[in-house]
Amino acid sequence: MESIKVRQRVGQDGILHLDIPVGLTEREVEVMVIYQPVSSPKVTGRSLERFYGICADDPIVLDDSGISESLDDDLAGAFD
After folding, report:
1. What is the 3-state secondary structure (H, E, C) of 11-80?
2. Average model confidence (pLDDT) for the chain?
3. Considering its fold, how many domains does the chain have in total?
4. Which residues contact 4 (CB under 8 A, 6 or more apart)?
5. What's residue 55's pLDDT?
């Protein structure tokens, strides 16, 4: 027995569509459905409101001094 966990949306018609993995085509299978409703927040557009104040305790400071050379000192081998 194998199990597959999927997250799908049931349409207004009450029909749940399942995409079956390629290895299960042209075979007879027994299926048992156990469902759990999930609540997902409605997203209307790309709003950044939920991130407002995220850096309040650690503000980003911009100045005119540019990039510090000391930032590159310890990066040798960091991306190997």
Report:
1. CCCCCCCCCCCHHHCCCCCCCCCCCCCCCCCCCCCCCCHHHCCCCCCCCCCCCCCCCCHHHHCCCCCCCC
2. 76
3. 1
4. 21
5. 72
Residue 74 lies in a domain: no
Using an 8 Å Cβ cutoff, are 35 and 7 in contact? no
54 in a domain, yes or no? Answer: no
Single pTM value for the model: 0.38
pLDDT tens, 39-73? 766 666 667 777 777 777 776 677 777 766 666 66
Question: Does residue 32 belong to any structural domain of this protein?
Answer: yes
Q: 30 lies in which domain range?
A: 1-38
